[in-house]
Specification:
- The chain is 79% helix and 0% strand.
- It has two helices and no strands.
């Protein structure tokens, strides 16, 4: 029983790490992938603090 728990815990930790690394890489790829429409959206969002009400 104890070995089963340790094996499952190690698998869950490794799987979770891989899942979050892949998710992070997907988010970074989405942000830096060249696209004219997303560039405009990101530029508009970046300028929000500079706009006056």
């Amino acid at each position: 029983m104890h070995d089963t728990y340790l094996g499952l815990a190690a698998f869950a930790q490794t799987g979770g790490l891989i899942l979050f690394v892949v998710a992070f890489l997907l988010v970074v790829a989405y942000a830096f992938w060249p696209s004219k429409e997303r560039k405009k959206e990101f530029d508009d969002a970046a300028n929000i603090p500079l706009k006056e009400d």
